[in-house]
Automatic annotation (TrEMBL):
Keywords: Signal. The lineage of its organism: Bacteria, Pseudomonadati, Pseudomonadota, Alphaproteobacteria, Hyphomicrobiales. InterPro entries: CHP02117 (IPR011727). Residues 1-18 form the signal peptide. It comes from the Bacteria. It comes from Mesorhizobium hawassense. This is TIGR02117 family protein.
Length: 221
């Protein structure tokens, strides 16, 4: 038992060190050359364990993600302002709509290996400034690259992404099968960080938690 506890303590210390270095070491190491004018305003949203990327709705985005309307999401609504995208573990995402409903098995899968899903929500105006909202202005080329990154995360069925039937928290969100596998090292926040780097922003080298991603975004952008 003593050896196990020593091993566990060493593992926790190693993870803490890796998370600290992952926050302080930027990725990419050097700032990219200046792009065009930042005409598109994207948002990063966080809660204690998860982050999402919100992209502003316009006609081009509606055409790009037209399959969302086929699943009943109101992307054409006059008060719809953003599509909010998140990638995560299937079991935890689908079985934990609120913190009071946390169950053991989804947590175990989140800490080991799980299938992944895309969660898509339609949002109206999002308040800024806000402690849980970070906004960035990016140019058109990087915005297009970000949309490509998000679209590539959806698992394709017959000519369109595969919606998970009867899965969602409200009438304004849906779940889709996603590419890749979720685990404690490669999770929702590393997906968000990857999208931000595609969008021309810098993050920490490894950001498994929202707090580390938030710190690195503030340090390097």
């Amino acid at each position: 038992m003593r050896k196990f506890l020593r091993f566990l303590a060493m593992l926790v210390a190693a993870m803490a060190l890796a998370a600290g270095l992952g926050t302080l070491v930027p990725r990419p190491l050097w700032p990219a050359a200046a792009g065009g004018e930042g005409t598109r305003h994207i948002l990063v949203l966080k809660n204690p364990i998860h982050t999402d990327i919100a992209v502003p709705l316009d006609d081009g985005v509606r055409r790009r993600f037209a399959f969302l309307a086929d699943a009943g999401l109101p992307i054409e609504a006059t008060d719809a302002r953003y599509i909010v995208f998140g990638w995560g573990g299937r079991a935890f995402y689908l079985q934990t709509p609120t913190w009071s409903q946390v169950k053991a098995m989804p947590v175990v899968k989140a800490l080991t290996v799980d299938a992944s899903v895309m969660h898509v929500d339609i949002a109206g105006a999002i308040k800024e400034p806000h402690p849980d909202v970070a906004g960035f202005d990016i140019d058109a080329a990087h915005f297009s690259a970000l949309l490509d990154y998000i679209a590539a995360s959806f698992q394709q069925g017959q000519n369109r992404p595969v919606v998970i039937e009867d899965a969602g928290y409200s009438t304004y969100d849906r779940f889709y099968q996603a590419n890749g596998h979720f685990n404690a090292l490669v999770g929702c926040n590393t997906w968000t960080a990857g999208g931000l780097r595609v969008a021309g922003l810098r993050t920490g080298w490894w950001n498994p938690l929202p707090v580390s991603l938030w710190w690195s975004m503030g340090l390097y952008n």
